[in-house]
């Protein structure tokens, strides 16, 4: 780790909160802190648990709530210290529109601030936010992003390209690059193989060429919630620590994700309740060491 950049960063993370379990800010804050970042988090919703449970309920914050909190930060001149902004799950269109204003204001205060946008809208062909959010994500918010981390379905929604193989994945990514986004990572795609989840990463270099990597992660026989939120946070951290080296960032991010998912799966299998939303909550605390020192489980494949 001696070759990696020392951390001197503060992240403003705006995404969901759950009382029990791990999604949104509950997935992002701890890993970022363990990797050396100060993290200020604003919750877009506050639910009892994630929506994969049979019952979930709570509050959806709106534009007024976010305005009140961010204005307080401005009045104390705290918004000028952010080196990164991370956004994820939002359920209110008015809140999402205010997120756009917040990102612009932080970037105005610190032009070098990096915006990592996880355009959380759905997965596996199904939207789990109101459909009215899609046009604002597609036509407004993602244009501010330095790093974009959609999953396969979200990349399709944002580009209109059906991601079915490597060629179509890169085509979708190129469309997103054309919107001015420097780094695009399709965090998970189910293409070509029933046994592998593929991650595609692409970065526009200073000379205008593209650096591309592909990562293949063995599937586990269950579905997890929160992996996209975890992936976006880890990518933010490792892109910063590696001085924007996409190969290192993707390898270490996905190695950590694999270690956490494997630990979570093994724990669920060994308990009496079987595989369910309760037992498949990510084992983040138990994976502290794997977050801080990622095991070399996954190697990215650099592509020309």
Can you walk through the features of this model?
By secondary structure, the protein is an alpha/beta fold. The chain has a single domain (about 10-304), classed as 3-Layer(aba) Sandwich (UDP-N-acetylmuramoyl-L-alanine:D-glutamate ligase). The protein is built from nine helices and twelve strands. The strands form two sheets. The chain has a ten-stranded mixed beta sheet, sandwiched between helices. It has a two-stranded antiparallel ribbon with strand order 6-7. The longest helix has 25 residues, at about 245-270. The mean pLDDT is about 95.
How would you summarize what this structure contains?
With 304 residues, this protein is an alpha/beta fold. It has helices at 25-34, 63-75, 93-109, 133-139, 152-159, 166-178, 227-241, 246-270, 288-292; strands at 10-18, 38-47, 58-60, 84-87, 114-117, 122-123, 126-127, 147-148, 183-189, 196-204, 210-218, 301-303.
From the 3D coordinates, which CATH architecture would you assign? 3-Layer(aba) Sandwich
Strand content: 15-25%
CATH class categorisation: Alpha Beta
| Radius of gyration (Å) | 18 Å
Class by alpha and beta content: alpha/beta
Task: Provide the number of structural domains.
Answer: 1
Question: Fraction of residues in helices?
Answer: 25-40%
The mean pLDDT is 95
| Order of secondary-structure elements | EHEEHEHEEEHEHHEEEHHHE
């Amino acid at each position: 780790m001696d070759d990696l950049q020392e951390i001197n960063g503060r992240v403003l993370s705006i995404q969901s909160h759950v009382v029990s379990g791990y999604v949104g800010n509950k997935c992002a804050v701890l890993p970022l802190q363990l990797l050396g970042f100060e993290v200020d988090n604003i919750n877009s919703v506050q639910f009892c648990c994630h929506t994969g449970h049979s019952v979930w309920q709570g509050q959806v914050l709106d534009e007024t709530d976010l305005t009140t909190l961010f204005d307080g930060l401005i009045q104390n001149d705290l918004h000028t210290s952010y080196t990164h902004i991370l956004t994820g799950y939002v359920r209110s269109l008015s809140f999402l529109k205010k997120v756009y204003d917040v990102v612009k204001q932080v970037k105005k205060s610190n032009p070098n601030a990096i915006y990592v946008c996880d355009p959380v809208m759905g997965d596996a062909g199904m939207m789990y936010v109101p459909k009215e959010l899609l046009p604002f994500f597609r036509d407004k918010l993602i244009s501010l992003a330095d790093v974009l981390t959609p999953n396969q379905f979200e990349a399709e929604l944002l580009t209109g390209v059906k991601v079915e193989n490597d060629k179509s994945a890169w085509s979708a990514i190129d469309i997103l690059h054309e919107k001015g986004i420097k780094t695009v990572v399709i965090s998970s795609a189910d293409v070509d193989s029933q046994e592998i989840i593929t991650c595609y990463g692409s970065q526009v270099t200073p000379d205008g060429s593209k650096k591309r990597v592909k990562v293949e992660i063995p599937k586990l026989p269950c579905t997890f919630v929160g992996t996209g939120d975890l992936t976006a946070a880890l990518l933010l951290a490792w892109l910063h620590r590696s001085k924007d080296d996409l190969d290192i960032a993707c390898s270490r991010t996905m190695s950590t994700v694999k270690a956490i998912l494997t630990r979570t799966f093994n724990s669920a299998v060994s308990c009496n309740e079987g595989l369910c939303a309760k037992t498949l909550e990510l084992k983040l605390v138990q994976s502290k060491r794997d977050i801080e020192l990622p095991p070399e489980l996954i190697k990215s494949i650099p592509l020309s």
